[in-house]
């Protein structure tokens, strides 16, 4: 008879854990779960790989592999002189780089633009980092002091600085001036319009609706043309506006209409109980909006707000139609120079402009994702 007290067959220690199969962990596991989890996913993955190769392989060859990196004129970028296939002509970009950044701003005064760029970077970077303290002071400096300082630095006429007409501005300078001004001004105007459209006062609601629908129904090209060409015809004799100022006003009003609809979507997403709770606490309308409703509404529509900002930044290229040379316009104007005329000149210029726009737009997009995650906007990424 077996001794029931003999427990020698029972393990006295836990079995050593075995590693998970290689096919389910690491990069291989991620690929199996996300790219090759089923036959349709596998087909779509292979199609995506083929499309990426078809697009990026020629782009890399043009921009880097077959590119020309040194030279003094067009001869360096001609295939018959190089003896091989020629891609991007980067010496042309190097030669025109100052014009792409400053336009026709006087060379001896370009340090003023550099100071403005530096001040903007020093103020905007701490503002975008949540952990940096003194946000209120930083915001006042950025939104109040900086525009005044930048205006007098760029325009001149004070402290012995020569006057530089805005007609001499161009390149990235014009792009950033229009984009930053439009973004900064359109958000508060859009918030007021969104609140006005939801107002209980009929006249305020009607005026807000008319304003929003009018500007949303007119193409931006038409707005710029009207602001630059038609507006002076309706002004009293002797009264005029600087062309850049007219463009800034037109872009701001146009963008604020779209911003109003984005913000209105956020306001409509707030539960009615939030309004009732704020009213039960005895908060006035503006207190309720400032402390309770708007913080939640704006948090919900961060993607829409940033999307509008990105669209506005790209729409700055349309100012060329009214004779202002932004970054893209400055690139196009350089094509008339016979010194650098070559088959790859236009492709190189457009590639450079596209890279600059992509850097700014991608940066805004990634910061939007960061803020969504930071503020927990209701969905996990």
What labels describe this entry?
single chain; 381 residues; mainly alpha; MetI-like fold; 66% helix; 0% strand; globular
Structural commentary:
- It is found in: Cell inner membrane; Cell membrane.
- Residues 172-369 form the ABC transmembrane type-1 domain.
- This is ABC transporter permease subunit.
- The chain crosses the membrane at residues 42-64, 115-133, 140-163, 169-193, 214-235, 247-267, 288-313, 350-371.
- Its main location: membrane.
- By secondary structure, the protein is mostly helical.
- It folds into 2 domains: 24-65, no CATH class; 106-375, MetI-like (MetI-like fold).
- Helix content is 66%, strand content 0%.
- It contains 15 helices and no strands.
- The chain has helices at 26-34, 39-65, 79-82, 90-102, 110-128, 135-155, 172-197, 202-216, 220-234, 243-269, 272-280, 285-300, 302-315, 327-333, 345-375.
- α11 packs antiparallel against α12 (285-300).
- The longest helix is centred in the C-terminal third of the chain and has 31 residues, at 345-375.
- The chain is globular.
What sort of overall outline do the alpha carbons produce when their principal axes are compared?
globular
What composes the largest sheet?
none
Give the number of DSSP strands: 0
CATH architecture of the largest domain: Orthogonal Bundle
Helix content: 55-70%
Label the structural class: mainly alpha
Measure the end-to-end span: 64 Å
Q: What is the arithmetic mean of pLDDT?
A: 90
Q: What is the name of the CATH class of the largest domain? A: Mainly Alpha
Helix-strand pattern: HHHHHHHHHHHHHHH
User: Uncertain regions: pLDDT < 50 for 5+ in a row?
Assistant: none
Radius of gyration: 29 Å
- Could you name the CATH homologous superfamily of the largest domain? MetI-like
> What's the structural domain tally?
2
The helix tally amounts to 15
Percent of sequence in beta strands:
under 5%
CATH topology of the largest domain: MetI-like fold
Subcellular location: Cell inner membrane; Cell membrane
GO molecular function: transmembrane transporter activity
Keywords: Cell membrane, Membrane, Transmembrane, Transmembrane helix, Transport
Protein name: ABC transporter permease subunit
């Amino acid at each position: 008879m077996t001794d029931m007290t003999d427990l020698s067959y029972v393990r006295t220690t836990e079995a050593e854990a075995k590693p998970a199969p290689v096919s389910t962990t690491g990069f291989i596991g991620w690929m199996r779960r996300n790219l090759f989890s089923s036959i349709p996913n596998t087909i779509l993955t292979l199609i995506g790989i083929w499309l990426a190769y078809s697009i990026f392989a020629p782009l890399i060859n043009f921009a880097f592999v077959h590119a020309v990196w040194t030279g003094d004129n067009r001869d360096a970028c001609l295939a018959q002189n190089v003896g091989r296939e020629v891609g991007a002509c980067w010496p042309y970009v190097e030669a025109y780089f100052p014009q792409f950044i400053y336009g026709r701003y006087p060379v001896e005064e370009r340090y003023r633009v550099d100071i403005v760029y530096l001040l903007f970077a020093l103020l905007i970077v701490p503002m975008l980092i949540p952990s940096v303290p003194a946000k209120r002071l930083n915001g006042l400096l950025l939104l109040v002091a900086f525009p005044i300082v930048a205006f007098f630095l760029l325009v001149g006429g004070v402290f012995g600085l020569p006057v530089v007409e805005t007609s001499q501005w161009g390149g990235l300078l014009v792009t950033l001036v229009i984009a930053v001004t439009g973004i900064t001004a359109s958000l508060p105007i859009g918030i007021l319009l969104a609140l006005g459209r939801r107002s209980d006062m009929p006249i305020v609601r009607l005026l807000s609706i008319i304003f929003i629908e009018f500007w949303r129904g007119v193409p931006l090209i038409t707005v710029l043309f009207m602001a630059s060409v038609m507006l002076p015809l309706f002004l009293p004799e002797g009264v005029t506006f600087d062309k850049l100022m007219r463009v800034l006003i037109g872009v701001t009003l146009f963008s604020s209409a779209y911003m109003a609809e984005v913000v209105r979507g956020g306001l409509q997403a707030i539960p009615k109980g939030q309004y009732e709770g704020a009213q039960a606490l005895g908060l006035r309308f503006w207190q309720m909006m400032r402390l309770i409703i708007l913080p939640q509404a704006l948090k919900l529509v961060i993607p829409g707000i940033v999307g509008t900002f990105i669209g506005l930044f790209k729409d700055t290229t349309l100012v060329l139609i009214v004779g202002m040379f932004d970054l893209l316009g400055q690139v196009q104007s350089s094509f008339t120079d016979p010194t650098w005329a070559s088959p790859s000149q236009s492709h190189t210029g457009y590639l450079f402009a596209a890279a600059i726009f992509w850097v700014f737009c991608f940066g805004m997009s990634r910061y939007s994702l960061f803020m969504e995650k930071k503020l927990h906007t209701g969905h996990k990424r």
